[in-house]
Amino acid sequence: MAFISILKSKAFWATQLSKMNDPSEVIGGINALRQILSTRPNTKNENYNLEDCSKEVPFACSFSEDSDSLDQWRSYADDAKGVAIGINLKRIGWHSSYLVPIQVDVKYGKPSFEERVNNFLDDQDYIEKENNLEAFLKYERYAFKEDGYASEKEARLVVPVSIYDEQTPVHYKVDDTGLRKYIELKHSDVKWSSIEEVVIGPACKLTEGDIRFILKKESIPNADSIEIKKSKHNYRSK
Fold first, then answer.
1. What is the DSSP string of 86-134?
2. Radius of gyration of the chain from Cα atoms?
3. Which residues contact 208 (CB under 8 A, 6 or more apart)?
4. CA-CA distances (angstroms) from residue 29 to 17, 19, 215?
5. Whose CA is closest to 155, among 143, 167, 164, 138?
6. Local structure of 135: helix, strand or coil
7. Which residues neighbour 228 within 8 Å (Cβ) at sequence distance 6 or greater?
8. I need a labelling partner for 148 at 20 to 30 A (CA). Which of 24, 26, 185, 218 fits?
9. Are 99 and 51 in contact (CB under 8 A)?
10. Domain ranges in the chain?
11. For the chain, what is the mean pLDDT?
C-alpha cells in the first residue's frame, strides 16, 4: 500500500522531477547506470541513449510506503494538519492523455541503486524480451535519490513527456519554489475503492467520524470498511 497526502477526484498531480527536493537524483541515476553498464560484458559496448532525457521532461507523482512519518507530516501535509490516504496502486488503471505512467520504487544511495540494477542484469530473461532492457533503463534512471532522503520510502509514477509532445496538456502554478509545471494523472473507475486506509495527521482537527462522513459523501464504495486511525506522533504545528 502506498500513501499520498493530497487526493483529487479521479486525478493526481504529477510534478516535474527537476523541481523536486533532490536536484541530483536524475543525474545521479544516469551516472550510476552508465558506470554499471560499462562493467558488464554483455552491455559495456552498447549505446543505450542514456542522455535522451535531454529530449523529455520527466513528471512524477510521489507516494510513500510509510503511513505515519513525522518528516512527511511536516513537509507535505500542511504542517501535519492533513491526512495520509493509503492507496492500493494495483487496483488503479492509470493514464495521462496518451501516456501511461510507469511505477518505479526509489532506491536511496548508490549501493542500493546498484544492487537493484545488477539484480535485473543478472536475470538473463531480460535478453529474451525485445526492448525490455531499454524500457528498464528508461525509467530506472528516475529511481535514484541520495540516501539522506531514505525516510521518504518513495514509490513514484513516472511519465517522461517528450519536448516535442504537443498533445499532453502541461499546466503550471507558482509557489515558493518558483514556476512548477505539472500534468494530471487520471485513473479509471474501479468497482471497489483503491483506498484502504486513512491516517489523520497529528495536528489535524478532523475526527474519525469526520473522515468517515467525507468518504461516504464522496461515494467511496467501501467507505464503511476503510481503516481510519490517528497518527501516533505528538506534534505541535507552527
1. EE-GGG--EEBTTB--EEEE-EESHHHHHHHHHHHHH-GGGGGSTTHHH
2. 19
3. 200, 228, 229, 230
4. 13, 16, 39
5. 143
6. helix
7. 197, 198, 199, 200, 208, 211, 212
8. 185
9. no
10. 2-230
11. 82
Give yes or no for a contact between 87 and 2, defined as CB atoms under 8 angstroms apart: yes
Largest CA distance in the chain: 61
User: pLDDT per residue over 24-58, tens digit each?
Assistant: 788 888 888 888 888 887 776 666 767 666 678 88
Helix (H, G, I), strand (E, B) or coil at 2: strand
> Which regions in the chain score pLDDT beneath 70?
1-12, 18-21, 23, 44-47, 49, 51-54, 94-98, 124-131, 188-192, 237-238
Residue in the structure block whose three cell numbers are 477526484: 9
> What cell does 80 get?
501535519
Looking at the chain, the whole-number percentage of residues with pLDDT higher than 90 is 28
Count of other CB atoms within 10 angstroms of residue 16? 18
